[in-house]
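Hi there,

I know you've been waiting on this one. I reran it after we fixed the sequence typo, so this is the corrected version. Both the input and the resulting structure follow.
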Amino acid sequence: MEDYTTLFDKRGTAYDSAMQAFPEARREEFEQLVARAALKPGMRVADVPAGGGYLKRYLPEGCEWWSHEPCESFTNHGTSSSGRPLLPLPWAEASVDVAVSLAGVHHLEDKRPLFEELKRVVRPGGHLVLSDVAKGSAVAGFLDDYVGAHNSTGHEGVYLDSHTLDHLIEAGWSILACDQVDFHWRFDDSESMAAFCHQLFDLHNNIATTCRAIETRLGRERLSDGTTGLRWSLMTIVAAR
């Protein structure tokens, strides 16, 4: 499988364009991670890998956002160390209060070096919130089977499971919580939903087929505010240093 940097050097621009075109689509996804991080003003938050810096706008006022993103194809939003290798992390030991990682590590076959580096930079008593796709979930199947068959790079994720918890513990983390969190990606209508996924995942087939695949594999529903909700789900782990 291609690693994170190789993959997003190829299709990070399309991913970033989708996030800019639909900036509110994944609000619930970001908010569930931030809520579990229990952030307070003055905290220093390390975002790894940071993509295009989408998480920053959801942090409480007064938090200091530190970001690290190895792919130069994510060109916006002030990520602080774009283009450098993912590891080692570019910060001093015990310099961070909370580390967060959203939807990036399923592209790392061996996550243990990252977990060890995150432990190095987080202060004693600090936390890590890791939120990503769970092995065997409907989202994992959609990504590997549908996205992988129709995009420019394929898709073969190494998803979170019980081994992830073991690897975190081996790296020196204490597991505080592990939840499967269900939420929606929100859109004005089904056409916008399919267009977002088409661009986010750099799909090369037709949008109508993508819309049918979403309905069949993930499900969509009309929400109480009139928007269209695409069902999404991540495993979110909270660990202490």
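Quick highlight: Residues 4-240 form a domain with the Rossmann fold fold (CATH 3.40.50.150).

Best,
R. S.
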